[in-house]
Specification:
The complex is a heterodimer of chains A (504) and B (152). Chain A contains 21 helices and 2 strands. Chain A has 504 residues and is an all-alpha fold. The radius of gyration of chain A is 22 Å and the shape is globular. Chain B is mainly α. Chain B has 6 helices and no strands. The longest helix of chain B has 22 residues. Chain B is 66% helix and 0% strand. The chains are: A mainly alpha (504), B mainly alpha (152). The interface between A and B is large, with 67 and 74 residues.
Chain lengths: 504, 152
Amino acid sequence: MDTFSYLGQGFGVALTPYNLVTALCGTLIGTVVGLLPGLGPINGVALLIPIAFALGLPPESALILLAAVYLGCEYGGRISSILLNIPGEASTVMTTLDGYPMARKGLAGVALSLSAWSSFIGAFIATCGMVLFAPLLAKWAIAFGPAEYFVLMVFAIVCLGGMAGDKPLKTFVAALIGLFLSAVGIDANSGVYRFTGDNIHLTDGIQFVVLVLGLFSISEILLLLEKTHRGQEAVKATGRMMFNLKEASSVFVVNIRCGLLGFIMGVLPGAGATLASAVAYMTEKRLAGASGKFGQGDMRGLAAPETAIGASACGALVPMLTLGVPGSGTTAVMIGALSLYNITPGPLLFQQQPDIVWGLIASLFVANIMLVILNIPMIRIFTRILAVPNWALVPVIAIITAIGVYAVHATTFDLFLMVGIGIFGYLLRKLDFPLSPVLLGFILGGLMEQNLRRALSISNGALDILWSSPITFGVWALIAVMLLVPILRIWRKRSVARRVVADV
Amino acid sequence: MLLQRIFASVLLLACLSLVLMAWPYQAPFSYEPIGPRAFPLLMLGLMGLGLVYMLFRPQPTKHTEEEPALDRDTLVKIGICVTLLIVFAATFESLGFILSSMLIGIPMARLYGGRWLPSVVIVTLMAIGLYLLFDKAMDVPLPLGLLEVLEN
């Protein structure tokens, strides 16, 4: 029952007035950031890292702020997908399918509050799961040596390709780009300058914030140039704002089911919110059968993906907190934030800094409740923000991005680097490469190299340490399965296509 | 498809030159079996393999529905936008935050379809507002540049 006393301690941290205000600011900022096109949870969180640091927030408050911003961003993305039918990011595509028809029916307010509620239940289920499993996993993870960690990170990278589905090769190349970029800078073990081209600003490597903001913000600014015409009118959120008890109970079973599903998907590295929401939607659609009006404003169709997103967002924190291995773009950003505070997530974090871990978990509860409550008075203001035209928005995004980058090291070199990375990111996006594997690779790269070198130092260069222990062997087997999944999938698709051709 | 082949080959060339760059990386005295060049070489090698495969068998590219084809107009706009961003980076410290953001913010607002007067007003207010917010309220130091005279 240690866990519960720790959780109580966590609430003690999260419920101090200072941290409550932090969480409130975070949810508000996050919602606005998520609303705006061109800014998503990844850049929202990344922008705030240097600012939180400059403000001198203590680490647990900074982490609470970032988590609140993250949840707020998810919520803001929901507003634009329900009212505008424009999904802010890949994971909210499923929300538009039934959310927008509901808004058209005059249930915009209900749709919004119901989605916030669903997400809250999802997060609640996942947080309970985290409370139960994370300490166990952390205890188990102490047995991990460098070889095990290395193999686990290989698994995380491979999972990205195996789960992301239709473009395994592009995902793989993107992750390798990130892995390589992490090697730029001085090598900590030997003092050799790697790939710096004698540039003094590259000595300690590419700054994480610069990479994130370049890849995501600058490339988004360039992408927005192509879409100068945007005549879509937001659906007015009028009438009833809150869902009623009947509506909530009609989707309750869906909530529970999708919450569990989302949590499991979130814990698996690489799967993440996008896959979780899609699987949840499809499953519920199939379960509802002919009785459902999916696609025409069925509440279950709205609740299913939202619950799954909420649950997987919290589930993704499990591997990050217990193993120190992030499974998604956003958790990778959070690791970046933690490393600024010299905190290394991993099994020892639970013992050494329980305040941070449990404070974070508790504040996830608090931030979710805040979002449900905020929805009622604020929704009219939020919908007005949606009407901000691109020409006013883009310069501001560019300027704020530059501030975020400049705040890290106060050098203009980083600004140039950001523009360069932004152009590269734009090219990657035009060619349909996924960007978050680059980020994940960048975070994992340093850890991977350190663990590989450490492992081989232990074995004095003998490679068999990488697969001799039962844990490593098991993980390699999983890696092999993950590598086979996309190949099998493509192979099956091809044979189906061939059969169709043969039938014609 | 062609675009992807070009991209893959350029990236492949970059990989090769980076491999050449990494080849001489050797620790002056070593106490571990793996030196500083193994990991980058491994990554570059794997990336190279992936890119070679892509060169011969380009992967399908999905475009989202509202994305128009790249035409001359858009390319020119993207060029201008990139130039503005570079100018921003170059003048950030010398002109100072407020002036350089106005310098690039106003043309940028025009580029995205704003009219002159509202663009000038909004960008100016934003530049000053953001400066006050970040530099004064949030302790993120920003350069004042030419405007330093005003401060005294």
